[in-house]
Amino acid sequence: MSVERHIAGMLRQIARQQDIVEIAPQGSARKAAALAHVAEQYGYAYGIAYRTGFKNSLVQVRMYRDPRPGARVREAATIATHPQAGNGGTVPGLGQGSVKPLPEAVGSVAVLKDLITFDVMALYVADRAQKVLGYLACAVLTVLLLIDSSPVEAVASGGAVALLITVAFEVGAFRRGKIAQRLTDAGFLAVRDEQGAQRFLRPGQHLPGHTGPFAA
Hints:
Blueprint: H1 3-15, E1 20-23, H2 29-41, E2 44-52, E3 58-65, H3 69-81, H4 106-121, H5 128-148, H6 151-185, E4 189-192, E5 198-201
Antiparallel strand pairs: 1-3, 2-3, 4-5
Helix pairs in contact: 2-4, 4-6, 5-6
């Protein structure tokens, strides 16, 4: 789907003043962040991102309508400045016909990209139970290999897989930690949601799904 069609579809949701707008572009978190920035200019605020679709190939972002007066002022100003957005006209913060942010939007899109990436990576950051299952699978593999291979080959193969799993766990945790630090430096607050997962919110923002999630 073209950039214009993604933007037009998102703006149709926004025009209906839906409480929740779903963004699911094909591609990277960078593209999702650019579209989320556009939604913010129409009075929405970032909620959560996760992977969906065939083999989790899509990054889906959920934006919530922000009821605060400042969001409505921002929405009105955007509509007045970009009356033809979604119909071939200019789009707030993005270059014409692209998802490349304009200079004034680069910082905002970068922060949204970090929020999206942090949430999406939760799927790949293992907790203790996942680690136990991963290493148990390595042990089962080693036992199965003993049937047709020598003990040395079986142990070496099982150990190699265990090493790959360990490296994947550590790399994921390291990358997510770097993103968490950038969000903290940008003034976001770390909280835990109802499932115990770490999230980052702007000061005065509550977790989406709660009553008045963007109220102070």
